[in-house]
């Protein structure tokens, strides 16, 4: 779509097209935010005592849990904010450089 904006300086608010409109509520699961990540949280299962604090604090619901236990991290949605690592009382989550995470495992993501 191409807009004719040569007179945009004279436009009133009604002439500006709507922006940022969500027409289909509940679509956030289609918007994978993991691509924003610079640092990747990696959980040490030996140190983790399954307190679930990281699960509670993660703003993206990217810490996966089942039957009261952490089962993994959903890297499709984890933005790498590091809150889980900062809040973990056992220092069981390490934030590692995303590119190094890829290199460390010869193509396999940790
Ligand atoms: S780094 Fe942030 S988004 Fe990713 S799992 Fe931890 S708290 Fe959630
Ligand atoms: S906050 Fe730390 S110790 Fe608690 S469940 Fe998460 S990784 Fe494990």
Could you explain the architecture of this structure?
This protein is an alpha+beta fold. The chain has a domain at 41-104: 2-Layer Sandwich (Alpha-Beta Plaits), CATH 3.30.70. Helix content is 15%, strand content 17%. It has helices at 53-57, 83-87, 98-104, and strands at 39-43, 63-66, 69-73, 93-97. A hairpin with a 2-residue loop joins strand 2 (63-66) and strand 3. The protein binds iron/sulfur cluster (SF4) (2 copies). One iron/sulfur cluster binds at residues 41, 58, 60, 62-63, 73, 78-84.
Relative strand content: 15-25%
What is the general shape? elongated
Number of helices: 3
Tell me, what is the CATH class of the domain at 41-104?
A: Alpha Beta
Encode the helix/strand succession as letters.
Answer: EHEEHEH
Q: Kindly report the CATH topology of the domain at 41-104.
A: Alpha-Beta Plaits
How many strands in all?
4
Computed CA radius of gyration, to the nearest angstrom: 20 Å
Distance between the termini: 42 Å
What portion of residues is helical?
10-25%
Model regions low in confidence, pLDDT < 50 over at least 5 residues: none
Mean pLDDT: 88
Ligand names: iron/sulfur cluster
| Estimated structural class | alpha+beta
Strand count, sense and barrel status of the largest sheet are: 2 strands, antiparallel
Strand order of the largest sheet: 1-4
């Amino acid at each position: 779509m191409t807009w004719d904006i040569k007179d945009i300086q004279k436009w009133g608010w009604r002439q500006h097209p709507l922006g940022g409109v969500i027409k289909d509520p509940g679509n956030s699961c289609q918007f994978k935010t993991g691509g924003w990540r610079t640092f990747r949280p990696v959980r040490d299962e030996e140190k983790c005592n399954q307190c679930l604090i990281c699960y509670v604090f993660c703003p993206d619901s990217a810490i996966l849990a089942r039957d009261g236990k952490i089962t993994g991290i959903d890297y499709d949605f984890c933005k790498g904010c590091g809150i889980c690592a900062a809040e973990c009382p056992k220092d069981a989550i390490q934030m590692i450089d995303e590119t190094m995470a890829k290199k460390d495992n010869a193509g396999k993501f940790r």
